[in-house]
Amino acid sequence: MTEQINKQADDAATDQAVLEVIEGAAEQATEQRDLSSEASIALVESREAIAVTEPVEELPLDLKAPELYINRELSHLQFNIRVLEQALDESHPLMERLMFLLIFSSNLDEFFEIRVAELMAQLKYGRESVGPDALHPQVVMNRIGEICNAQVERQYKILNETIFPQLENENIHFQRRRDWTNEQKEWIRVFFEEKVQPVVSPIGLDPSHPFPRLVNKSLNFIVELDGKDAFGRESGLAIIPAPRSLPRLIRLPDNLCDGGDNLIFLSSIIHEFADEMFPGMKVEGCYQFRITRNADLTFDSEEVEDLARTLRGELHSRKYGAAVRLEVDKRTPENLIRFLLREFSLDEAHTYRVDGPVNLTRMMALRDLVDCKHLCWKPFTPGMSGRYKQKNIFDVLRQKDQLLHHPFESFSPVVDLLRQAAKDPKVLAIKQTLYRTGVNSDIVDALVDAARSGKEVTVVIELRARFDEESNLQLASRLQEAGALVVYGVVDFKTHAKMMLVVRREEGKLVRYAHLGTGNYHSGTARLYTDYSYMTSDADVGEDVHKIFQQLTGMGKILRLKKLHNAPFTLHSRMIEMIEREAKHGKHGHIIVKINGLTEPQLIRALYQASQKGVKIELIVRGMCRLRPGIEGISENISVRSIIGRFLEHTRVYYFGNKGKPDVLCSSADWMERNMLNRVETGFPLTGKLAERVKSDLDLYLADNSRSWMLHSDGSYTLNKPEEGEELVSAQETLLGQFGS
């Protein structure tokens, strides 16, 4: 679809086309999903947001035509909407449905902090740029506003009309002020006087007290006042910032309640006692609001002399970036909303009126405040083969390569490899990349132990892992204090590769052991994300990993690798070559790719060309996808599905059939511009039984008919469900059954 900005007639025609798509997608969704009446209505409404572009008719064969590409930001929103859908899925436990609803808020926060902030900056400074879809940033912003307003309204409706009532049925109560008993009020008053009032600093607005700088995503209240204070001031307005140190949910003592778990919101306490913060004055109204700011860290790489020092200086500014979104209680008077918009230099389009707490993500604390095990997924123990229980993991890897599929299989062997290396007197050196690991983790503990024991420990830490910068700075300091050599990679290229290299002296020669993964070295996320871990003593792989570390820590020309492919040098071109090879096989060609995002135009065009040659292309793309499947003459041989379930799908796998001699690679890289062209990434081949196992996993995901969503050429998604008489298949549940206990 080619947008013509400022032409009303074209806009009207586009709107009509979009409406037709929405109606069709909604009818299809209603037919295909057996939901309760209320949930069906909600699902139909969600389709209105998911279908963001009209069907493409009579498309040209120019594979660069904008009609062939879905907008990146709008596709990103569609993923978030699919997450929100899980809150209505009654096959999930109730507490998990609430968590999905809250994750939607968390995802949306980051979307505004980064993606919307970038679009607003483009428009503000007159440096608009368009992607392959050719949508102008203002058009994208308009659609984001429409979609987000509809989905946020729907989110609160689900919370208030579905989740809260069902929690009530489970004896989990959120007590409103009007329902507080006298005994509860007295306890809450004491709590306010002892825990809240001493740390709250209400700010009256007058010429000597201008509007305060409010922290990104903080809870605040705007208060209408009547009367004069002790100094004779009568500005009429005040701001109450809620300290971040205070919990947003407070559990009432059981002896003050009639049973069950009883909770109140901090916002309710501040509302109740707002007048006591302004003695002698009358509070006419108190309304909560929240501001979201630009949280992206930017700096001129040519001016950077010390990356760590530069980041430390930038981290504070993240809290006070330009405002990008205002969330307010829907009961807030319009004059106060206009006042806030002026203060934050925003307009009505950036305003979200909500029916409930404005900071929903803080409700995740509920899990720790109530006994809700029966409302959560049943705990599981990741599987672990007996071979890893042998005394020496190096003996295991000398016998054959190992592949682990997390979280279904334990992450412990990866940690054990490092632990044993730290203690083994035969180990001389350890090299490791860290992206999102955390300061206190088993991995870091082992690296610290190795460094303190005198081994040569080199760690490449990516300081710019978004929202983990501060943690990574602390991590770097801890490792340096232990004696490890810490480097920060390459300034203009994030180090996203997941690599570990252990150098061990065996029988008078040096042997390299390597670990390569699709996910981070984090034991916590290894229980929540699906990822592959590959461990090997293969000499060629070890040498390749060594060369990549050389590139990261030293300087020199591109080094030729024997088995691995690495971005930004060879991975992208190798993917193009392998797609083109499948295209030569025509109808005998077969490509399966499982990734988190597909946005890189050259790869998309190569897939289109392969489809035109008859190649069967099956894509499993969890999040953003610019490619349009199912377009006659261009992509009718391409299918795209997204898996949303208990675990966050995170594996990156590339399968190329090659007429019965398949190539199978796992990687740290998605098929996105940043991964292929602006990051340090690795792609590692698997052969034999390991390759067969990965292909079997891919087939299982392709057979999933309960947690998978199909992408259509109009940009809409439809939830798959079994045909009549067909067995229900959930890839994640099947894998849990195979490995977990």
UniProtKB/TrEMBL annotation:
CDD domains according to UniProt: PLDc_PaPPK1_C1_like, PLDc_PaPPK1_C2_like
Biological process (GO), any one: polyphosphate biosynthetic process
InterPro entries registered for this protein in UniProt: PP_kinase, PP_kinase_C_1, PP_kinase_middle, PP_kinase_middle_dom_sf, PPK_C_dom2, PPK_N_dom, PPK_N_dom_sf
Keyword Metal-binding in annotation: yes
Chain positions recorded as ATP binding sites: N107, Y529, R622, H650
Alphabetical keyword list: ATP-binding, Kinase, Magnesium, Metal-binding, Nucleotide-binding, Phosphoprotein, Transferase
Substrates-to-products reaction catalysed: [phosphate](n) + ATP = [phosphate](n+1) + ADP
Record-listed E.C. numbers: 2.7.4.1
UniProt keyword rRNA-binding present: no
Cofactor(s) for this UniProt protein: Mg(2+)
Record's function text: Catalyzes the reversible transfer of the terminal phosphate of ATP to form a long-chain polyphosphate (polyP).
Protein name: Polyphosphate kinase
Source organism of this protein record: Amphritea atlantica
